[in-house]
Structure to design on (152 residues):
């Protein structure tokens, strides 16, 4: 498995959870559970991706700009998750923030998979892609097993 395949597995989970979350309403156990699952998924993914995908790419001139853009999008998601954590689940504005988060997640994943991955594929060597996948998956699994209050 290479780093791109490893990252896509989490991307699929993020899409599914964010879409399910938008179908919830009010302060229900379903909404709370889905939100915690999405928050945990995004956190575990971002930690591993930052350390074992973005940082190695930042060490190259050609990877610097695209990496900085992707990291700024991670920051936007962090801020939206924090807003959701601070808003009552029953608040009508909660779903509006969740929609903005879902749109940001989907936009980010689309950009990564249909642009960034291709650029990164030209920068990273095949052995490095496999090595980074192993490191990413170990980090992802470690953080996935932990319950996080927020991404910040």
């Amino acid at each position: 498995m290479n780093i791109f395949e490893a990252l896509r597995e989490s991307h699929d989970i993020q899409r599914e959870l964010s879409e399910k979350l938008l179908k919830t309403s009010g302060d229900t156990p379903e909404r709370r559970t889905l939100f915690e699952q999405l928050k945990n998924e995004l956190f575990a993914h971002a930690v591993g991706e930052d350390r074992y995908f973005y940082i190695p790419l930042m060490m190259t001139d050609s990877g610097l700009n695209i990496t900085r853009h992707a990291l700024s999008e991670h920051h936007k998601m962090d801020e939206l998750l924090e807003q959701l954590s601070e808003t009552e689940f029953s608040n009508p504005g909660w779903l509006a923030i969740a929609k903005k988060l879902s749109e940001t997640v989907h936009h980010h994943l689309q950009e990564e998979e249909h642009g960034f991955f291709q650029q990164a594929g030209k920068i990273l060597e095949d052995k490095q892609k496999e090595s980074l996948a192993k490191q990413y998956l170990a980090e992802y699994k470690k953080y996935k097993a932990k319950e996080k209050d927020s991404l910040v």
About this structure: The chain has one domain: 3-145. Residues 3-145 form a domain with the Four Helix Bundle (Hemerythrin (Met), subunit A) fold (CATH 1.20.120.520). The radius of gyration is 16 Å. The chain has five helices and no strands.
